[in-house]
Amino acid sequence: MFHNAMTRRGFLVTGGAAAAALLTPSVLRAQAAFPSDNMQVLVPTGEGGGVDQAARAFTRIWAKHLGANFEYSYFPGASGQVGYEVFVGKREANAYNLLFGNIGPEMIMYATQKVRYKYPEDIMYFGAIDSDDSVIWVAANSKFKTIGDLVEEGKKREITLSTSRLPHPSTIGALALADATGMKVRMVPYGGGGPARAAAITGEVDGCATFLSSSLGLSEQARFLTVFNDTNRAPDLTNNAPPVNQALGTKIPPLSGQRAWAIHRKVAAEYPDRLAKLISTMKTVFDDPEYKTVAEKAGTPWEFIQYADAAACDASAREFVELANQYKSLLSASK
């Protein structure tokens, strides 16, 4: 790789080749044009899940514009904490190592668990690819026809709602709903979206609190009751479920997740040109006609695909830390 790079610059001489033989691969890569090797993506959740599928759909297009392939590794555990700690502590801060995560759930995790890294000192989200709203839904054959029905039942007995993990925007939504209405609710974490959805469909729990996109493939098996946002951005896909505040007169803040690319914070200072190239090329993905096809095939409605820059990602991250601290006692009580 170094031989070819030097040849293109017209500097290949015997002495230069001999010196190159003594250089380490990391030094060689640092001197070559970026990127000169595969990109390494760490996913802090399981292989094959919604985050993984969204990342792979994006990098399928991004690879064309960046000029590099993407390789994946997975470190699920502790609601994302394991992956973030591996990334910060064991991955080189060289712009070749990226983390793809979900800002909402993982900043709630950051605020509520004892982690071995600091935000924003160690992690920088440099671009989000979508915005996914939290929802509550029940099985299609459930007796609950509206979110009001669920709340009224919850005033008589404890409602159980499945969730993929407790540090999650939809969990905060359900707990905030209970706090505002007086309903009783118990969140049941299933360690993944698939098991959480199955529990709601089979009636093992009363319903499911999750992100909208992860439940759109259920077809006639689910009935959406409410959306935790000011508007329902996909009414045709959610049996026109009403926004929670519109339905119940509550004042619950929007609770959306943003799947985003992150990098070591020090990369911005040490490799600004590399970071600039990552950002400029990732932005071109949204204008590539092929991306719409692969994104929807991966399960994300095109209505939810939207770019957010580093500043917007940081604002979202800080908002979720604030929300997590506000509802920390409820999150703890739900365990």
Secondary-structure map:
Elements: H1 2-9, H2 14-22, H3 25-31, E1 39-43, H4 50-66, E2 70-74, H5 81-90, E3 97-102, H6 103-112, E4 123-130, E5 132-139, H7 147-154, E6 158-163, H8 169-181, E7 184-189, H9 193-202, E8 207-211, E9 222-227, H10 244-248, E10 256-257, E11 259-264, H11 265-270, H12 272-285, H13 289-297, E12 305-309, H14 310-326, H15 328-333
Parallel strand pairs: 1-2, 1-3, 6-7, 6-8
Antiparallel strand pairs: 3-11, 4-11, 4-12, 5-8, 5-9, 5-10
Helix pairs in contact: 4-12, 4-13, 6-14
Describe what this molecule looks like in 3D.
With 335 residues, the chain is of the alpha/beta class. The protein folds into 2 domains: 166 residues, D-Maltodextrin-Binding Protein, domain 2 (3-Layer(aba) Sandwich), CATH 3.40.190.150; 125 residues, Periplasmic binding protein-like II (D-Maltodextrin-Binding Protein, domain 2, 3-Layer(aba) Sandwich), CATH 3.40.190.10. The protein has 15 helices and 12 strands. It has a 6-stranded mixed beta sheet with strand order 2-1-3-11-4-12, with helices on both faces. It is globular. The N terminus is likely disordered.
Give a quick precis of the structure:
The chain is of the alpha/beta class and 335 residues long. Helices cover 44% and strands 20% of the residues. It has 2 domains: 34-131 and 258-325, Bordetella uptake gene, domain 1 (D-Maltodextrin-Binding Protein, domain 2); 132-256, Periplasmic binding protein-like II (D-Maltodextrin-Binding Protein, domain 2, 3-Layer(aba) Sandwich), CATH 3.40.190.
